[in-house]
């Protein structure tokens, strides 16, 4: 019997090894792999595969290198603390990628190793039309020496979605730097806390969080949904994370100079999901409105039930947003 869709998940906290037969299954069109160990030098040559999701919660890929050679692949999603040893090759139909990478800036991973992994996975993304990435990944990309090359790889991208931790002043420069290198972008979506549900979900998602905190191993399992836990670290451990942050990102972007002539000629739509209505939200939107000369619409959406206080704050945010100066005279704020 031909199998078209498959999800291969971990057993408890342990990853299982990918069966060799899956790597060449001719009928598969959708494949989801959750904490799966690969045979050394495995090649996923799946001729009909259109959708692939790769989840590596603890970066347990080891030294195995996986070459994904799927000529009909249209959608690829990676979830994990940093890119594992995954190559994307021969993917001319790949038009959508979701890179849900965790808080890179708190990791002890070697920067050169991360750069090597990044190049491997992004080489196969030259035909992308839409890309979703975490705010922390965006900040990391703009601090790497290959920023110009990334702009070349993403040259066909028309839709960008940023999730998690984008809504502060330190995001303005990274957003400016990446948009400046995406000449054809037409839509930008900003979604706050894509996977953050509440403090108790952190324990459910990462059951060994307390153990990691005690043994200074948080950098191996950290995910954007547990950033608030960093605030409760002892001062000496908190200093360690700050040093890692400085190693990755340098000084805060507050001191950086924005591109003086950076205009977004094709950006027509900005969507903000679950804004906080903070001053940083307004600073970011003020910057975008001044630079998006072809902007037509700003869409603000919320999910879940809102308290009266929250509704009032968002109403005030909308009113302030409507009064901000803008480069386009035909912007509709919804």
TrEMBL record:
PANTHER family: F-BOX DOMAIN-CONTAINING PROTEIN, OS02G0105600 PROTEIN. The lineage of its organism: Eukaryota, Viridiplantae, Streptophyta, Embryophyta, Tracheophyta. Residues 261-334 form the FBD domain. This is FBD domain-containing protein.
